[in-house]
Write a structure and sequence with these properties.
The protein is mainly alpha-helical. Helix content is about 75%, strand content about 0%. It has two helices and no strands. The chain has helices at about 5-30, 40-65. Helix 1 (about 5-30) packs antiparallel against helix 2.
């Protein structure tokens, strides 16, 4: 696989993982939230990040026949 495509895939996979981890904390671990008072804004922000990462991964895989 081309190293540039691999780097892009790695980037979006990491973005996806970060968004999933953050959303999991927001939804399931109230003690970790701390001083965030605008939780809905945080949820929307990380949901958009997740959607972007998944969309970009799908686009790369579709157009460059990337496996995995």
């Amino acid at each position: 696989m081309n190293q540039l495509i691999k780097a892009a895939i790695d980037h979006y996979q990491a973005q996806r993982t970060e968004a999933l981890a953050t959303l999991d904390i927001l939804f399931n671990d109230a003690t970790a939230i701390g001083e965030h008072t605008d939780l809905l804004t945080e949820v929307k922000k990380w949901t958009e990040s997740l959607a972007e990462a998944e969309d970009c991964l799908s686009t790369l895989k579709k157009n460059f026949k990337v496996n995995g």
